[in-house]
Amino acid sequence: MEETPEHRWDKELGESYIGKYILVGITYLDHEGNEKQIQQMHGIVVSASEEQGITIQLKGVYEGISWTMPPEQRAIHEASPGIYTLDETDEEIDNPDLLSTWTVQDPESRPE
After folding, report:
1. 36, 88, 93, 110: least buried by Cβ within 10 Å?
2. pLDDT tens column, 65-80
3. Is 78 left (phi over 0), alpha (psi -120 to 50) or beta?
4. Alpha helix locations (H) across 1-112?
5. Per-domain boundaries in the chain
6. How far is CA 28 from the centre of its chain?
7. How many other CB atoms sit within 10 Å of the CB of residue 96?
8. DSSP E strands, 30-65
C-alpha cells in the first residue's frame, strides 16, 4: 500500500497523545464478518511512535497491564465530553480525552 501524506505518522500529533486518557474498543469478527467478541479498555497513553506503536498503561479491570496498539493515527479521535459506560464491565469512564476503535477479522480458512 502506497503511503500518502494523510497516512504518514505525524510526530507532533503522536507526542500530543502522551498523558491523555484513551478509551479503546475492539470488535473481533469471524472470517465471514460475524461479530465474535467486543473488548473495551481504557488508560493513559505513555508513549507513541511510528516505530513502537501507541502504548497505554491500562486502568480498571486491566489495571497494571500495558497494551500497545498499532501506530495508526486515523483510528484515534478526540472524545466528546460525557460518561462512557463499558458494556462488558459496566465501568464508567468520565470524560476521556481520546477514543480509538478497531475491527479485527479472522482470515478465511485455507484448505489443508
Report:
1. 110
2. 999 999 999 999 999 9
3. beta
4. 11-17
5. 5-103
6. 13
7. 21
8. 35-49, 53-58
